[in-house]
Amino acid sequence: MANLTESEIEKLFSGAPQYFARSEGHYTGAPHPSVAFPWDEALEIRDLTDHTQIEDKAWGSITAWPHITRDVNPDRSASQRASEEKRRAHFYPRCRERPNMLSMFGLEKGSLGYQAALELGVADSLQEEQWGFESLAARPHAVAEQRQKMLTSKDGLRSVDETVIMEQLIKNGKRYTEKHLRERRLTSELYNELFLHLLHPPTKVLDHRDPYSLAVQIMALVKILATPNVWIDFSHVEWRIRLGQLLWSVPGVSEGVDFSQDRPAEAAADFQEERYWLLLQILLACELLVRLDAITEGEELGTESIRPAEVHRFEKEANKTVKWSLILARVWLENIEIVKSEPAEPAAAEEKPSGWLATLTKRMSLSRDHDSHHSRPPTYEIRGKHIQRQIRGLTHFAKRLRWPGIESHASQISQNCHAVAEGIPINTSLLDPSLSDSHHALHHRHSNNSQSQSKHIRARRRKIAANLQEGGWLSKSYLSGMILPGEALCHFLMATLLENDPEARSKLGIIAILSGGLIYSGKSFWSTSCVVGRVLAAGKGAVECMGWISSDVIPQGRADGWVDIAAEELQEDKLQIDKKARLWAKQTIERESHVLGNARSDPAGVLPADFVIPTENVYRDKLPPVIDIRLTKLTLHPATNAVSTTSIERYGIAPTGTDQAQEFQTYAASITFEVTDLDSGDRAKHTFSLSKDIYFVTAHPCVPSQHVRIMKSPSSPTIRQVDLDGTGNPAGRTASVVGHPLHKYYTYTVFHLSELLVKRDASLDELLASYSSATHRPTITPVPASDAAKVLVIDCITNFQPQPQEHEIPLSPVVSRSDSGSTIPTPLNAGVETSSSEPSGSNFASVLESASQKMHSETRRRQFGSDMEVLARAICAEKGWNALISRRRRGCLACAIREAGALGWKVIIRVD
Question: Cα torsion for 250, 254, 257, 260, to the nearest 10°?
Answer without folding.
Answer: 100
